[in-house]
């Protein structure tokens, strides 16, 4: 089997068995091809299937560390190679995964950025709800900030996934794992109105009656991740502001708002679709003012002295 054949089998495995997104599989493939290029340039092994010890793997990690890459990027590349070689071992194409015990640089923990409540409200207010695209944008904001969706989940949302009676949306998250998110009443009403009126008008531009995606671009086609980012950037510009925004920042603001207003961590974990509670704890932060307020209310001595 050639190196390229092994890579293709692995990518097919990620697509068909693991259910990874197209972007993830593309990143994994690029990471493996970069390693293959390194092997050929440095002449450390004849190919991907000919590695015989950890020295090559450690040399590659050292090489990446000297390329001025972010620690998170190096971790992703190591994860891709680990997954690839574990697959080769499981298929009995090689005997050992020599990346298994190789460590990448530690990733510094940083709190994700959030958007101020006033900025979020400004974005909602700037949407022209009398215009079909403006109303669509209003609903997009509602889903990102009101449901905590990933941008890929927003783009993949279909009409059949929405239960207006229960005020829920069935979401297919990472690895095709399903969860239900909750719509606040005004968002449910807005989505229902958009789907029955403005979406029909937008869809007419493509004349594709079989398109069941909720959010469409101006040409009536499925909205993309890049398209969502452009919409958010334009909303900021229309407000006359220059602050940076991304769909992920709205997701984080969703989680932070819930925690700051008394939601428990487990509920937020379920709504975000995190497998581990530790992921939610890293992903969200509670403002220091909220911590101080909780302390003043809950601690017996603080509570007593404040009366």
Describe this structure in words.
The protein is mainly α and 307 residues long. It has two domains: 88 residues, Tyrosine recombinase, N-terminal domain (DNA polymerase, domain 1, Orthogonal Bundle), CATH 1.10.150.130; 176 residues, hpI Integrase, Chain A, CATH 1.10.443.10. It has 15 helices and three strands. Strands 1-2-3 form a three-stranded antiparallel β-sheet. Helix 6 crosses helix 9, helix 6 crosses helix 11 and helix 12 packs across helix 13. It is globular. The mean pLDDT is 88.
What series of H and E elements makes up the topology?
HHHHHHHEEEHHHHHHHH
**Helix residue percentage:** 55-70%
CATH topology of the largest domain: hpI Integrase, Chain A
Shape annotation? globular
Taken as a percent bin, the fraction of beta residues is under 5%
Strand numbers in spatial order across the main sheet = 1-2-3
Count of folded domains: 2
Number of helices: 15
CATH architecture of the largest domain: Orthogonal Bundle
Q: CATH homologous superfamily name of the largest domain?
A: Intergrase catalytic core
**Low-confidence segments, ≥5 residues, pLDDT <50?**
none
CATH class of the largest domain: Mainly Alpha
Give the tags.
mainly alpha, hpI Integrase, Chain A, 2 domains
